[in-house]
Design goal:
With about 210 residues, the chain is mainly alpha-helical. Helix content is about 65%, strand content about 0%. Component of the ESCRT-I complex (endosomal sorting complex required for transport I), a regulator of vesicular trafficking process.
Length: about 210
């Protein structure tokens, strides 16, 4: 029997598939760490919203891509972080929300241009049509709602609109589902009601300058 050398490197894998698996897990680990640093930097005002938003969006996109590649090894992000003793609550929160903090809380980044109004209106119509056409799966609804909420959050005062918080809440719900999972008929009806409410509130704010229509 050969003796074990203490100077010999311990390998996590013995086959190419195993090597690829651990390489992907290491990449996922790195994305979470980077996202946590980014969140903390933004909270401390170490970076501006203009710097934070695209960087956060890119990391969240990379995270979603990696999650698809390691889905057989990672039942949930909480389990993954627990297994590897990761203490990164800021990153976990951002992952669960699924959009940058500037979208979740409204960055009030600038004036409401005609282009923004047209794009947001179209996003509202597209999403409501999707629900009326009985689209129910997360991978069908989440990208459309994410685009809607992102555009909606660009308007000054949107952080105080009731519709914004409702849509962000639905975005978090969808973000926590698996791609193939579907919302129920009851959820679909409530979601359509909430988005229709936000749509009406959005137009009241444009015409009267206040979300309550006064």
């Amino acid at each position: 029997m050969s003796s074990l050398s203490l100077d010999e490197e311990v390998r996590l894998y013995t086959t190419n598939p195993e090597r690829e698996k651990y390489s992907l897990l290491a990449t996922l680990f790195g994305i979470i760490i980077a996202l946590d640093y980014l969140e903390r930097a933004y909270v401390r005002d170490a970076i501006t919203a203009a710097e934070y938003s695209p960087a956060c969006t890119r990391l969240l996109s990379q995270y979603m891509t990696m999650l698809k590649l390691v889905k057989d090894s990672v039942p949930s992000i909480e389990q993954f972080m627990s297994q590897y003793r990761m203490d990164n609550p800021a990153a976990l929160h951002r992952i669960k929300v699924g959009v940058p903090a500037t979208v979740e809380h409204s960055s009030e980044a600038g004036p409401e241009t005609g282009k923004w109004i047209a794009e947001t209106t179209q996003n509202f119509i597209t999403f409501m049509d999707a629900l009326k056409l009985r689209l129910r799966a997360k991978d069908q609804l989440h990208p459309i709602l994410q685009e809607l909420v992102t555009g909606y959050a660009r308007f000054k005062g949107s952080k105080d609109w009731e519709g914004r918080s409702r849509m962000v809440s639905w975005l978090i719900t969808l973000n926590g589902m698996k791609a193939s999972e579907e919302i129920t008929e009851e959820q679909s009806r409530q979601l359509l009601f909430d988005v229709d409410h936000a749509y009406a509130e959005f137009f009241r704010s444009l015409s009267g300058g206040n979300s309550d229509g006064t």
